[in-house]
Specification:
It is built from 20 helices and 23 strands. By secondary structure, the protein is an alpha/beta fold. The strands form five sheets. It has a six-stranded mixed β-sheet with strand order 7-8-9-10-12-11, sandwiched between helices. Strands 16-17-18-19-20 form a five-stranded parallel β-sheet. Strands 3-2-1-4 form a four-stranded mixed β-sheet. The protein is globular, with a radius of gyration of 24 Å.
């Protein structure tokens, strides 16, 4: 009989006593460094807490009592006194987009409060003008880019228009990207350069916004219409520019304690740029890429040396990404029941839409299984999740010999309770998005899903009740890659207005930490070397300002990342 994962995690971290930690036995070998002097949360249920950790050659050589570990001290050993701060395994990013975070780092900040100040169209316009005047990237690229606007948080409660972006510039292309990354708004120059006019039909899986009563584009592009236009508008980066963007993105992840980062839905250009950056020694942390399964070209990128379980200069390709629908906050996720309030111009029974036919989804999933590729699948709406479940079921029937393909559901915002059991039966790993409860919880309740369905977004409680593991992600650049915001939302599920959304899906801090470390390593097939502080694993650590297990849960958002350590080397320190 299965034991509930939540009970294991809680019992391990909350009741494990340092005095009862297993001794590493007779120490052997002199340590390069020893960490002691503060709580050490190992994420290892067999030894949940420790007094000290020894590191040699980038790996953990001993974990246990201070007196035992200090026997490994030599003349050159660096003894690090934590001074009461908390040491944990480095955070493992279950899902985000490193390449696009690089784009975000050089774009105008269009985020609403508290991560920006774009709470009205006028503020958005002013920030774009300032960026156009001061950004070297805007001058170099010949396009003004903005990232992170959110129509649900703007005073006007709508997307900006092409005319409002024309007021920023009528001579330079302007493109702003929605916080979900599933929409964009273009000014007239950008629309022309992207080849979009009144005569342009909507692409499959996408919508070109039109002015009322006409076919003239209003500037808003949804899903595949936006992705296609963005590809045509984005200038080709030099090797130096691409590496510089990736370095800036890496700095942001380091600030939040991540030692392994995902680049989900990488394009061929993204993969090539990341390989070049890897070869140039840009990366201090590990980057695992999942190229878009629809953009594999001749398939050469899915062969060695980079398609591997092992990293080459901190980079590897871990599998492929499939996308089945859009964004719930943008009301393009594919639901089985209509949206609580239909978007403007849509009928009352509007429920979003998928981006692939079920036959195509089945074909692609079968291809991945037959090739042995891990596939991570973007599915927000429960209708899209049904499509994922069906595709995995078909692929297992067609490729019965496949061993532990470990497909991953990415987001699963409207995952139904009956679907959780099917994920468990089929071995589909859920990577959920509880951080939505803070950023869009009120919007989900009031407009997207309504009071009842909104309670169950990212239903971690149902997953844990089945004894399943899960991960909790930030989907950067949808939000900043803040491990602390992820932790707080996974535990507390408090909205912007201070209301709890889905009390039965709140989890204890010990479980939430597992979802950011050991279970995230498992998701990536890396649990043998990452995710916990155990002998033989990589010395990937993060130092926090307080102990997230013992501090008041309501204060988790006040935690700070003080240091990030990759393979025994400090790669970030807070100033």
């Amino acid at each position: 009989m299965k034991q509930r994962i939540v009970a294991l995690a809680t019992a391990g971290l909350l009741t494990g006593l340092v005095a009862g930690c297993a001794s590493p036995g007779a120490p052997q070998g002199v340590a390069d460094s020893i960490y002691l002097g503060g709580p050490i949360l190992t994420m290892n249920d067999a030894q949940p807490n420790a007094e000290a950790v020894a590191v040699q050659g980038g790996r953990i050589t001993a974990v246990g009592r201070r007196s035992d570990i200090l026997k490994l001290q030599g003349p050159a050993t660096r003894v690090v006194d934590l001074k009461g701060k908390t040491l944990l395994p480095g955070f493992v990013d279950p899902h985000s987009h490193l390449s696009i975070v690089g784009l975000q780092a050089v774009s105008a900040n269009m985020l609403p409060s508290p991560d920006g100040n774009n709470d009205s169209v006028a503020q958005l316009q002013e920030n774009l003008r300032r960026h156009m005047q001061t950004s070297p990237e805007a001058r170099e690229l010949g396009i003004v880019l903005g990232f992170g606007y959110d129509d649900s948080q703007l005073k006007e409660q709508r997307h900006p228009t092409r005319e409002e972006l024309d007021a920023v510039s009528s001579t330079v292309p302007v493109m702003i990207i929605h916080q979900s990354s599933h929409f964009g708004v273009l000014n007239s120059v950008a629309l022309k350069q992207a080849g979009i006019s009144a005569a342009t039909p909507d692409p499959q899986g996408g919508v070109i916004g039109r002015k009322a009563g006409s076919q003239e584009p209003n500037g808003l592009l949804e899903e595949n219409a936006f992705f296609g236009a963005a590809m045509r508008l984005m200038p080709k980066l030099s090797e130096e520019q691409a590496s510089g963007w990736l370095a800036k993105a890496q700095d942001l992840y380091l600030k939040y304690g991540y030692t392994t980062v995902q680049d989900g839905r990488s394009s061929p250009d993204n993969v090539a740029q990341t390989i070049r950056a890897s070869q140039a020694g840009v990366f201090k942390i590990d980057v695992v890429s999942y190229p878009d399964i629809l953009e594999l070209g001749d398939g050469s990128m899915m062969q060695g040396p980079y398609y591997s379980r092992d990293y080459t200069r901190h980079f590897r390709i871990g599998g492929v990404k499939m996308t089945l629908d859009g964004s719930p906050q943008g009301k393009t996720a594919w639901l089985s029941q209509p949206y609580y309030k239909a978007p403007a111009g849509k009928p009352a029974d509007y429920a979003g839409y998928g981006v692939l036919s079920s036959d195509k989804a089945n074909e692609l999933m079968t291809q991945a299984f037959s090739k042995g590729w891990q596939v991570i699948v973007h599915a927000n709406g429960d209708a899209a999740i049904d499509q994922l479940i069906g595709a995995v079921r078909v692929a297992k029937q067609r490729v019965p010999a496949v061993q532990d393909p470990r497909p991953v559901l990415i987001h699963g915002q409207t995952l139904r309770k009956d679907q959780v059991a099917q994920l468990d039966t089929l071995g589909i790993f859920p990577s959920l998005f509880p951080m939505h409860t803070f950023y869009w919880g009120d919007w989900h309740r009031e407009s997207v899903l309504g009071p009842q369905r909104a309670e169950d977004i990212s239903p971690t409680g149902w997953v844990l009740a089945r004894g399943m593991r899960f991960t909790s992600h930030h989907d950067a650049p949808v939000a900043f890659p803040s491990s602390i915001r992820v932790l707080d939302a996974t535990v507390n599920r408090v909205t912007r207005t201070g209301q709890v959304l889905g009390a039965e899906h709140r989890v204890d801090p010990a479980t939430a930490l597992k979802s950011l470390t050991l279970w995230a390593a498992y998701q990536h097939f890396e649990e043998d070397r990452k995710g916990s502080i155990e002998k033989g694993k990589l010395a990937d650590f993060v130092v926090l300002s307080d102990n997230p297990v013992t501090m008041p849960r309501q204060q988790l958002s006040t935690l700070q990342v003080l240091e990030t350590i990759k393979e025994g080397t400090s790669v970030y320190q807070a100033r």
